[in-house]
Amino acid sequence: MPQDYTVQSIERAVKILEQLADEREGLGVTELSRRLSLHKSTVHRLLATLMFFGYVEQNPYTEKYRLGMKLLHLAGTILERMDLRREAHELLKELSSEVNETVHLVVPDGNSAIYIDKIDSNRTIRMYSQIGRKAPMHASAVGKAILAFSPNDFVKKVIDEGLEKYTAKTITDPGELMKHLENVRKAGYALDDEENEEGIRCIGAPIFDYSGTVIGALSISGSTVTITADKFDFFAQKAVECARSISLKMGWRIE
What is the pTM for the complete model shown? Predict the structure, then answer.
């Protein structure tokens, strides 16, 4: 939308919410002011308004601001009307129970993938991922599963945005990524071997709709201690089978 059509105060409030969404521990007025290049008094007034309506809350001990529970209500309303999440949920629970690892469900969101469902394993160590968080397309199993079956112009757009390096294993060379995606297409699944986060491995499989368009992906995620190389084939098989079952529920038909 052209900037001429935006309301400045609303635009600034949205930017505050976006900043807080990326900071689990919250942010103070000074830091928000610095990041947004706004006067502290302006930031304070906007925060006060957002707090009044429940979209922001303040930690009484640190005095930092974080997202409020009102946003959870709004997000829940959106998630409930998402057919993919509703149709996939029970299958994801079955998959997580079978492999005893955390299972994620994502959909494309711009040049990233966004988590819309998560089933935790019974293990004491829990994944840091959260519903609503984003995963990089080029450095996550779910992202690469989506990219591999997406149109070339979308892949090019992701590459043109820059392939950020998250760990020593992240693929940052465009040519290497294209070859990697070709292998994903042949195999039917993608592997994230500590490419997004050190110590974490994920195996992702694409999900398709009635038209054969990739609309999301799921992943089995865990530590390198539990997802070892000798288990790759087993986990890949289970991920692909679950993704196929969800795709069939979304109207996809095997050609």
Answer: 0.72
- Amino acid, res. 152: N
- 82-249 is classed CATH 3.30.450.40: yes
Nearest residue to 151 (alpha-carbon basis) of 205, 106, 108, 214: 214
Sole residue written with tokens 């942010």: 27
Q: Which CATH class is domain 3-73?
A: mainly alpha
pLDDT: is 81 or 182 the higher one?
A: 182
Q: DSSP letter at 27?
A: B
Q: Which amino acid is at 239?
A: A
Domain ranges (residues) in the chain: 3-73, 82-249
Per-residue pLDDT of 153-206, as tens digits, reads 999 999 999 999 999 999 999 999 999 999 999 999 999 999 999 999 999 999
Our measurement of the distance from residue 91's CA atom to the centroid of its chain's CA atoms, rounded to an integer in Å, reads: 19
